[in-house]
Amino acid sequence: MHFLYSIGLFALAGIIVPLIIHLWNVKQGKTLKIGSIALLGESSSASSKSIKINDWLLFILRCLLLVLLAFILAQPYLKKTTAGSNKNGWILVEKNIFPQVFKTHQKTIDSLLKKGYEIHDFNVGFSPLTLKDTLYNETKQVNTLNYPALFSAADQFITPGAKVYFFADHRLNPFGNEIPTVNYMLKWIPLNQSDTLSNWIATYAGKKYEAKSNPSNTVYQALNSSDVAPISVAIHENPGISDRKYLIAALKAIESFTGRKIIINGAAEKANIGFWLSDNPVSADFRSSIAPNGALFQYENGKLVTSASFINLYGRQVKLSKRTEANHRAEKIWSDGFGNAILTKDKTNILNIFHFYSRLNPQWNELVWDELFVKALMPIVIGDKDPHDFGFENNPADQRIVSLKQKAVIEVNKTISATKTTQNKPIGTAIWVAAFLIFVAERILSFRKKTNDVKN
What we know:
The protein has helices spanning 16-23, 35-38, 56-74, 98-104, 106-114, 147-154, 243-258, 284-288, 372-382, 404-413, 428-455, and strands at residues 2-3, 76-83, 90-93, 118-121, 128-129, 163-168, 185-190, 198-204, 207-213, 218-222, 231-237, 262-264, 271-277, 290-299, 304-313, 316-324, 331-336, 341-347, 352-356, 420-426. By secondary structure, it is of the alpha/beta class.
C-alpha cells in the first residue's frame, strides 16, 4: 500500500484519545450503612482506583476508526502492473474521411480488425466507428482541437502500452508547437493528398498579401505595398527622461518588419498615434495633434507600488519591479502576476486611449529589453484587430507537409518501450465503507454499555 499524502498519517496520534478515556473511566463507588454499625460513627473515607481497560472490544473499535480516518487523509492507493497488449489497440481516423481511407487501406484495416482493434473517430469524444460508416460520406466535421491536444485527450481512453494506427494526411498545419508525451504506441500512416497547391489572400498590418503554398513551402507576396499610407507618430517626454529612445528603437523594428513607413514627430499632418511619456497630465495641444479615431498611449500617475511581479504577455512573463495603482475601470490589455492592470484601453468619441501603469524604463520593468516589446506594441501602432502573431502559418489552406525526420520524431515521442505499465488504483472508497461499518458497530456497543450501566 502506498500513500499520496503521507503527512496525513500524523493523525494516527489521535489514538491516544480513546486510550486516555478507557484508562481513566472509573466508576464512582457507593457507601452502604448497615444498622449494627451505624452507631459507631463516621469513619475516615478511603478510595482506590484501578488503571486498566475494562472494555477491550470498544477500545479496539475506536482505535481502528481513528486509524482508518488517518488513512483516508493520506489517500492510499495500490500499484498495479499490467502488461501491454494489442487487444485494446485503436484505429484513429476522422469520420468524414473514413470511406476514402477504407478504400485505399482496406487490407490494412481488415487485418487490424481481425486482431481486435477498435475504430474511433479522431475528434472530441473519440466515438466508435464501424464498417457501416464507410457506406456514406458525411459533411466535414471540423476538429475543435489540434492534433497534439487530441493525442493527449486520447491518452485518457486508450490502454497504456496499446498500439494505435493513425490515418491522416501529413500536412504540417494541424500540429501545434509542442508534441505531447502519451502512454500508447503510435503508428502514423499518411494519406495521399489530392490537392497539393493552394493560394489565398491575407491581410496584415494594413497590407494585402497573396499566399502560394505547396508541400515544401508557403510564400507571401505583397499586393498593394505602394498604396499603404505611412504611420505618423507623435512622442512627448519631459527633459531628463530617457524612455523615448527605447520606444523609437521598437518603432524602427516594427517599420522594418511590416514595411510600413513610420514618421516620428512629423509636422506636416496629424499623428495616427501619440505617446505621452510624462508624469504630467496630457496637454490639450498634444491631444489635438492626434487624428480622429487615432490612439493615445499615456503614462498614468497614482500611488507607487513596489513589488516583485511580472507582466503577462502572450503566455510569457516579463519581470516587473514598479507600477502605479490603476484608477480607470477599462478593458485590461496587460496585467501583472496578481491580476492588477498594467495597460488598459478605453475609447472616447475621438480617440482610443491606452493607460499605462508603469514606465518604458528598465528601472520599472524589463519590457524594453525583451523581444516581446515589439510584438506587444504592434497592435497599438498598426491597429490590427487580431494581431495574435506575426505570420499566417495557421491558415487552413497551408499545404506544407511534415518531413520524414519530423515524422520519425513524432512517432518516437509518442511511443513507450516498456512491456509493463504501472497504474495507481485508489482504495479510498473501500476504507470509507469500512470506517462507516466500524462507526456503526462502535455506536451500538457504546449504547448497550450505557444501558447496562443504568440497569445496574
